[in-house]
Amino acid sequence: MFKNSVYGTVVALVLAAPASAVTLTECDRTTHISHGGETAHVDLGMGRVMWRDWWSQEGTATSFTLVDCAPGVALSFRTQEENMGNAMPFDRTEKALAVIKRHENGARAFATFDRMAADLDGIARNIEIITLDAEPCACAALYPEARGEKVEFMLG
């Protein structure tokens, strides 16, 4: 009898578990029909991820987002744009990524989003730090245990 109840419990747990977790590869996707999306997701370690956001309708733009998965704090910044309204075109992607690399290669205690944002000032545009209510795809793929109270990411 005990053996059957343990077996039943194990089966119930397996059936209740998600069929498959999202993978980092699945995070590369179009998020705005044919003209915007996310790509190049990277695990920066210690619960932090980064990806490139792209846009290509009438003009082009490249932005990056870094997220500290557990608290859901995100740093986003634009490194390239052309023909996006009245702003002058620019491409400072390499310089901006060098700033991020320098911070990420140092001690994590000093690689704060506030410090990164300050160092990106004058290089990138539209620099902002926000707290997310929803779990990003890369966090779901790499650090699902860090979701906490955030809305669970679902592909769809």
Automatic annotation (TrEMBL):
Q: Which UniProt keywords apply?
A: Signal
- Keyword flag Signal: yes
Which stretch is the leader sequence?
A: 1-21
Instruction: Provide the protein name.
Output: Uncharacterized protein
Organism equals Tateyamaria omphalii
